[in-house]
Structure formats: C-alpha cells, structure tokens
Design goal:
Shape: globular
Strand order of the largest sheet: 2-1-3-4-5
Radius of gyration: 16 Å
Largest sheet: 5 strands, parallel
Number of strands: 5
CATH superfamily of the largest domain: Response regulator
Helix content: 40-55%
Amino acid sequence: MIEKPKILIVDDNEYLLHLLILHLDSHLPEYDIVAARGIDEALNFLATPNHQIDTVVLDVMMPPGKAFTSLETHGGFIAGLALAKKIAREFPEIRIIGYSGNTEFDPTWFHKNATAFLRKPFLPKELVSVIKGESKKVAIKSIYKLSLKTLAKVAIIVGFIASVITIIVFFQR
C-alpha cells in the first residue's frame, strides 16, 4: 500500500492546531494530516525515516523548545522561522507555509524561500488554496484589507471558539 503524502502542522496553540487539522482533513483527502505541538515534536517527526512529509505548515511564534536557544529565536518570537530555515536546509523538497498574527514580523524570508506566508487571521480555505497550489505566495493580507463580511465571519468563528473554551473550562472544575 502506498502511503499518502503528509502535511505536518506545527503550532503550540492546541485549539488552532485542532481547527486546522479538522479543516484540512475534510478538504484535502489526498493527504494525511499530522500535527506537532511544538518545535521538538516537529523535529522528532522529521527525523523519522520515510516520514513522507510533503508540506509543513507552521506558526512563526512558538516556544523555542530544546532545538533552539532563546537567543536564536528572540525568546520564541521567531522560533518558527528558525524551524523553517532548518527544514529548508535539511529537507529542500518539503514545501513550507508559515503564518503569524504578529504584525511586526517581517515575512521576507518566507517570500524568498518558502511556498507561502499567511497573516493571521486567515480563513482555513486560504490555506487549502495555497496547499493545492491554486494560489502562490498568497495572503500577505492585512486585517485592514479584509472585507466587513469576512471580518464578520471571523468574529463569529472566534466567538464560537471562545464559547466552547469557556464551556470546557467550566465543566473541568
């Protein structure tokens, strides 16, 4: 049996990680979607022989883990960038898609060396479009350029997620 290529999503935010897994799983059945909750998990997965990773989707801002020093990553501010550079160096065949909500982050490296960079908040369908190759180097989309209709959708999704988190926390007490 031939294994499907894999998309590795790397993010320390478990809620966003699960949201992306659900969306990509339902919209990209030709891929296996796997997740790493940080840099160390991602590097362990990539160290596995025959990992079949086709694409890495990663957050730029994460804790540096054991792989990088706090100094190298400016205290985690660019830990995902350090990971992206390592992946590009060691696995040049892997496509890299970065994302960040930090408006101060300069995505120049991603424009020159990666498949794409997305500015959060982005819609999951934008990520699917980039992965499918329908959109190249997408989405340096500023929050200010989003339409009011898109902002309303994002607000509804964020509100729903916040409600779910509140309910979960309430019942865990």
